[in-house]
């Protein structure tokens, strides 16, 4: 598959911020320009990755989850969902979902697995939850708990896409004891808002920042685990967070279905 490197690409720019190697000069230029406007974007990317690791370790460990549905996979980097989960529980099964041709080209790197577990990749759009659920059922057992992760993906949906309805449709068929993890950028910082406008213009994207209340509403009908919906550096941190530390302009949470 031919990859277009003439224009910056969101997955490659994100990979650049995370210190990866899967990017071109156009992506570096866009990433550096946005960083100049909003230096906190690199910190946000790093903290979101750390939230993924902490949440998945909890799910595979204390919560005993053995099935994961990861929507908005992005490019492979350090500690992907299957690596974190299978490090705790080698028999874990992980289904990745993305509709990005660039991510599809890297899917083989995602499809590695421990011999006891299994991974799969679904080429599908999050706006079509029925198709995702149908294909995921080929590997995952929906009569048993599943952890759904939507990290940095809901911002790619406009309000007209009905993101809250999409979340409800994805969670509806899951059994009791299933979990939902979400993280996304918030509109709480004027500088970030301006950087996001520039990001959308440069990448022909449509990333939507939402209020903390809107992010929290995605968990309606579920029971949030402590500490609730918080900025991503404050969700069960492994190291103390100083009170005077500038909060990251992104929220996250983990909730269970009863």
UniProtKB/TrEMBL annotation:
GO biological-process terms attached to the record: methylation
Domain of life, per the record?
Bacteria
Q: Which InterPro entries match?
A: SAM-dependent_MTases_sf, SAM_dep_MeTrfase_SAV2177_type
Q: What class of enzyme is it?
A: transferase
Q: What is its EC number?
A: 2.1.1.-
Keywords assigned by UniProt, alphabetized: Methyltransferase, Transferase
- Entry's Gene Ontology molecular function annotations: methyltransferase activity
The protein here is known as SAM-dependent methyltransferase
